[in-house]
Amino acid sequence: SVLHRKVVEISRELLGEDMDFDFDMLITKEAGSQTETPWHQDESYCESHVGGLRKHRPVADGKHVMMTDLGPEDTGRPCPVKAGGCTVHTGRTLHYTGGNKSSEARRVYIINCRPAAMVAEERRQKFDHGLAGLENIID
After folding, report:
1. CB of 44 within 8 A of CB of 94?
2. What is the distance between the alpha carbons of residues 71 and 103, in angstroms, rounded to a whole number?
3. Contact status, residue 64 vs residue 131, Cβ threshold 8 Å
4. Contact 6, 111 (CB under 8 A)
5. Are the C-beta atoms of residues 106 and 45 closer than 8 Å to each other?
6. How far is residue 87's CA from residue 110's CA, in Å, rounded to a whole number?
7. Which spans in 1-139 are helix H?
8. 118, exposed or middle or buried, with CB in 10 Å at 0-12, 13-18, 19+?
9. Which member of 27, 48, 71, 100 lies 3.0 to 4.6 Å from 33 by CB, making a disulfide possible if both were Cys?
10. Strands 37-40 and 95-97: what pairing?
11. Which long-range contacts (CB under 8 A, 24 or more apart) does 121-125 make?
12. pLDDT digits (tens, 9 = 90+) for 35-90
């Protein structure tokens, strides 16, 4: 799509010429949801990473969502994103989202670009980002 091509252009400007489109997804947290997305680094989902990651584990047995623990030296602060805004981060950026305390659904559209070699390796490993179904991905 035109949007994907533009995002790939931007990702190459920010992160290097080897970046390529990997996948996109829409996430919704319903109004009043207490569900949190635990602290994690997106690259922890890919087995082809090389160092620089914290130790991760599934949030529960048989689930796909990964999490890591924060140590006493870790500090974090909320960085709210206004409606219509965006955030850009690498696969090694430690991040988290809390529940949705608002009275309206919170929707996020994610476009994920990664180095082309990583995308190729994911496909070789049959990692499909939920295309085959969502069983065991979320609780």
Report:
1. no
2. 33
3. no
4. no
5. no
6. 10
7. 2-15, 116-124
8. buried
9. 100
10. antiparallel
11. 121/46, 121/47, 121/48, 122/22, 122/46, 122/48, 125/47, 125/48
12. 888 998 888 877 655 567 888 888 888 877 888 888 888 877 778 888 889 888 88
pLDDT tens for 95-127 read 888 899 999 999 999 999 989 998 888 888 777
> Count of CB atoms within 10 A of residue 53's CB?
17
Tell me, what amino acid is at 61? D
Distances from the Cα of 131 to the Cα of 3, 12, 22, 34, angstroms: 20, 26, 13, 26
Close Cβ partners of 109 (under 8 Å, ≥ 6 residues apart): 24, 25, 26
Q: How far apart are CA 70 and CA 74, in angstroms?
A: 6
Q: Distances from the Cα of 110 to the Cαs of 39, 71, 75, 87, 107, in angstroms?
A: 17, 28, 25, 10, 10
